[in-house]
């Protein structure tokens, strides 16, 4: 057992030592079915919250040709949003892929606005397999094999039958060790290691320290390997709660009772345990424990916010800080008073515009469609709203049309004085704002905070809402401003 883990660890070190710094990945090819479209290239920011992160946008020209490069710091699972499909590939830094897209199948407008729509996941074809790492067949074989063991997992957890688990692992090793030999320069050895780890862990669910020591304590945190996360979550779910009730966690139990509680206090307590001497692993487990603790009611809403905010300031690992920030945003998503989801989109003249560019004014943000009657009716009314409140507010309409090519002609004679943006290249903005119906409107304050997410349309009583919010904001700003003290010049002025 240990010999195989040492072998896999050596593969891990070789693989990641060559990819410490961020490197370019290139996707190129021809896909006439997708001519004139733009495709989001995404990965996952973390496999705890499964929050998508856009790496680039692949623009396909009129002839169906595409060529795009993006930064990648280590081998990662990359997803392409292809209408009704979602295609994936494990991509490697410094690699160039001639990819083959599946036949285009558009997503219906109803599906585009459905936050629960799940596209069909398909493999991404590669033409130049001889010149790039290509472990798809090995991964597919592993998934098919491990699926057969799924019924065994429940039995192993309940029976704690280590001998049976070792038998299953031996059977898997006899099949996959030769494959690992042929894919040692790919990510597959790591995927196999942590898929295999699930079988090894199942009968040892009450041996938490043994599992952590064997599989995770001396290993780097593999942020971009989903199998690593699914295996470690088996043993580390509700980590802080479980640890505080263990023999080694008595001090943690006392720490959890302190108020106010911060990330640094949890970290100072856990670092005293030599099992968690690896900083990034320790910090990751704490933030993961905060995430679980919120949903299990270990922490209140306010406590969770404090812990996550202090984690973003106090954690040494940048990835841990990012994870805490992501969890905070997800927890407070679209909550009035919290930051509105950021976006960077193109206007109909091809200029990039970000929500951050609009700081200092209110933003009346609408999601619209050029073929929706209610949206068309609202568009004319938006001119009046922009004209009346232009000193204090910017009116923005995000067009959710599947393609943006026709938008310039659509607005050519409409003389719109509000900002027109297109979601075509970055459709995730629609789900970021939880849009399920059109039109939908939001009001954002000058500091980027959401002040109303059920904002009336411009043809309804929106001006009362806007005027009240602007007046309230200015009043609050005046209360915060220090009072000016009168001086000799004021006395002269008032004496005239």
Mean pLDDT: 88
Pick out the low-confidence regions.
Answer: 3-7, 9-21, 491-496
Biggest β-sheet description: 7 strands, mixed
Described by the principal axes of the CA atoms, the overall outline is: globular
- Strand tally, please? 16
Strand order of the largest sheet: 11-10-14-13-12-15-16
Protein model, in words:
It is a single chain. The chain is α+β, with helices and mostly antiparallel strands and 496 residues long. It is 43% helix and 19% strand. It contains 19 helices and 16 strands. The protein has helices at residues 2-17, 109-112, 136-147, 150-159, 162-182, 188-201, 208-215, 226-236, 239-244, 250-255, 263-270, 279-295, 301-314, 318-331, 373-389, 407-411, 428-432, 462-480, 488-495; strands at 23-30, 38-46, 51-59, 65-72, 76-82, 85-91, 96-100, 120-123, 125-126, 344-347, 352-354, 362-368, 393-399, 419-422, 440-444, 450-452. Strands 11-10-14-13-12-15-16 form a seven-stranded mixed sheet, with helices on one face. The chain has a five-stranded mixed sheet with strand order 3-2-5-6-8. A four-stranded mixed sheet has the order 4-1-7-9, with no helix packed on it. Helix 5 (162-182) runs antiparallel to helix 6 and helix 12 (279-295) packs antiparallel against helix 13 (301-314). Residues 3-7, 9-21 and 491-496 have low confidence and may be disordered.
């Amino acid at each position: 057992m240990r010999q195989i883990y040492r072998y896999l660890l050596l593969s891990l070190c070789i693989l990641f030592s060559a990819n410490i710094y961020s490197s370019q990945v290139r996707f190129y090819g021809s896909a006439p079915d997708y001519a004139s479209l733009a495709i989001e290239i995404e990965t996952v920011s973390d496999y705890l919250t499964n929050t998508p992160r856009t790496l680039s946008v692949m623009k396909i020209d009129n002839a169906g040709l595409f060529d795009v490069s993006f930064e990648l710091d280590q081998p990662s699972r990359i997803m392409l949003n292809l209408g009704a499909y979602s295609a994936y590939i494990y991509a490697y830094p410094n690699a160039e892929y001639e990819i083959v897209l599946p036949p285009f199948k558009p997503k219906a407008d109803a599906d585009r606005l459905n936050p629960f729509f799940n596209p069909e996941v398909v493999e991404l074809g590669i033409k130049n397999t001889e010149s790039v790492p290509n472990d798809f067949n090995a991964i597919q074989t592993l998934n098919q094999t491990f699926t057969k063991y799924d019924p065994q997992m429940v039995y192993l957890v309940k029976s704690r039958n280590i001998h049976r688990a070792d038998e299953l692992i031996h059977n898997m090793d006899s099949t996959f060790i030769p494959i690992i030999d042929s894919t040692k320069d790919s990510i597959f050895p790591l995927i196999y290691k942590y898929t295999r780890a699930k079988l090894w862990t199942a009968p040892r669910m009450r041996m938490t320290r043994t599992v952590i020591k064997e599989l995770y304590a001396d290993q780097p945190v593999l942020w971009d390997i989903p199998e690593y996360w699914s295996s470690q979550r088996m043993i580390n779910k509700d980590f802080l709660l479980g640890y505080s009730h263990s023999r080694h966690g008595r001090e943690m139990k006392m720490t959890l009772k302190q108020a106010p509680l911060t990330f640094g206090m949890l970290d100072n307590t856990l670092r005293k345990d030599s099992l968690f001497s690896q900083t990034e692993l320790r910090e990751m487990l704490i933030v993961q424990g905060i995430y679980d603790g919120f949903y299990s009611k270990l922490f209140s809403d306010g406590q969770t916010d404090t812990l996550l905010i202090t984690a973003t300031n106090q954690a040494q690992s940048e990835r841990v800080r990012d994870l805490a920030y992501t969890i905070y945003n997800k927890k407070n998503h679209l909550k009035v008073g919290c930051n509105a989801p950021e976006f960077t989109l193109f206007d109909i003249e091809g200029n990039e515009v970000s929500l951050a560019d609009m700081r200092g004014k209110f933003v009346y943000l609408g999601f619209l469609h050029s073929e929706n009657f209610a949206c068309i009716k609202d568009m004319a009314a938006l001119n009046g709203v922009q004209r009346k409140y232009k000193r204090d507010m910017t009116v923005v309409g995000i067009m959710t049309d599947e393609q943006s090519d026709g938008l310039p002609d659509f607005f050519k004679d409409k003389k719109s004085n509000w900002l027109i943006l297109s979601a075509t290249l970055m459709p995730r903005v629609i789900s970021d704002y939880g849009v399920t119906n059109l039109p939908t409107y939001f009001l954002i304050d000058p500091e980027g905070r959401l002040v109303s997410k059920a904002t009336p349309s411009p043809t309804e009583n929106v001006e009362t809402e806007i005027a009240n919010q602007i007046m309230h904001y200015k009043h609050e700003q005046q209360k915060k401003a220090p009072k000016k003290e009168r001086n000799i010049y004021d006395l002269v002025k008032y004496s005239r």
